[in-house]
Amino acid sequence: MNRSVEHSIPGQATSDGAGVKLTRLLQHTLQQRLDPFLMLDAFGSDNPNDYIAGFPNHPHRGFETMTYMLKGRMLHQDSSGNEGLLEDGGMQWMSAARGVIHSEIPQQENGVMAGFQLWVNLPAAHKMDDPWYRDFQRDDLPSYSTEHGVEVIVLAGQSQDTNGAVTRPITQPLVLDLHLPAHAPFSHPVPVTHNAFLVVYEGTVTLNGQELTPHHLVILANDGDHVQLHASQDAKVLLVAGQPLNEPIVQYGPFVMNTNEQIQQALHDFRAGTLTR
């Protein structure tokens, strides 16, 4: 069976970092419903005032981040000594785990900066693992084309016989960037046990006859094991799915743990300068 649309939720304008304007697509109220995913932000502007200040040093503990840069240049630096320049079509994956302090600063003073940041929860047993980081340029990201001309960029997980840039054995995130020409169909298996959503960021597509438009988080019901899309016009879609952890989620800003006591410990460690040790 093909999955149906459970809800289509418009993104909410907000800001983060040093005033970067964002559209928050996945809010904290949806964390249990879309477990293991915690947050999804979209950013996109050709006004430097909307992004130029970037995200100065800030901490994280207990989860992973995927940043996908559609357009623009952003420099990542962190307390583990990692550094990477995200450019058009590039992606970075960072597991904050027990603690990272990092910054993301634009390396441009004009032009378009656009992309997504997705937060993926870590299992309780791995929240205090060592952090790690990896970045990929556009040409490093696995991709393939379907017989109908759909380009599939496999950011995480596996699609057909193509392994993604990142695989995670427990949460099993599937993150696909789909570029569909007008009138093209696209179908992909997603286990009925996995939570899934999609975001149209250019053009329009239909799912089970329902038209989906940009800037909405489309939650897919757990009522089938395939996602079937059809492009009404040239379209670009982010498809995301993953295995839920079914564990308590307690978030305080940049910290996501399982209990209030663990959050208090994270705050104590950050204030004491021991978060990353």
Q: Which whole number gives the mean pLDDT? A: 97
Helical fraction: under 10%
Give the N-terminus to C-terminus distance in angstroms.
48 Å
How much is the radius of gyration in Å? 18 Å
Strand content: over 45%
SSE ordering? EEEEEEEEEEEEEEEEEEEEEEEEEEH
Protein name: Quercetin 2,3-dioxygenase
Organism: Paenalcaligenes hominis
Family: Belongs to the pirin family.
Q: How would the blueprint of this fold be written?
A:
Elements: E1 5-10, E2 12-16, E3 20-26, E4 37-45, E5 55-60, E6 63-71, E7 74-78, E8 83-86, E9 91-95, E10 100-106, E11 113-121, E12 132-136, E13 143-145, E14 151-156, E15 158-159, E16 162-163, E17 174-180, E18 185-189, E19 195-202, E20 205-207, E21 210-212, E22 216-220, E23 226-231, E24 235-242, E25 250-252, E26 255-257, H1 260-272
Antiparallel strand pairs: 1-22, 2-3, 3-4, 4-11, 5-10, 6-9, 6-11, 7-8, 7-10, 9-12, 13-14, 14-17, 15-16, 17-24, 18-23, 19-22, 19-24, 20-21, 20-23, 25-26
Relevant terms:
277 residues; mainly beta; 7-stranded antiparallel β-sheet; 26 strands
Explain the overall architecture.
Helix content is 5%, strand content 51%. It has 1 helix and 26 strands. It has one helix at residues 260-272, and strands at 5-10, 12-16, 20-26, 37-45, 55-60, 63-71, 74-78, 83-86, 91-95, 100-106, 113-121, 132-136, 143-145, 151-156, 158-159, 162-163, 174-180, 185-189, 195-202, 205-207, 210-212, 216-220, 226-231, 235-242, 250-252, 255-257. The strands form 6 sheets. The chain has a 7-stranded antiparallel beta sheet with strand order 1-22-19-24-17-14-13, with no helix packed on it. Strands 2-3-4-11-6-9-12 form a 7-stranded antiparallel beta sheet, with no helix packed on it. A 4-stranded antiparallel beta sheet has the order 5-10-7-8, with no helix packed on it. Strand 25 and strand 26 form a beta hairpin. The protein is globular and about 55 Å long. The termini are far apart.
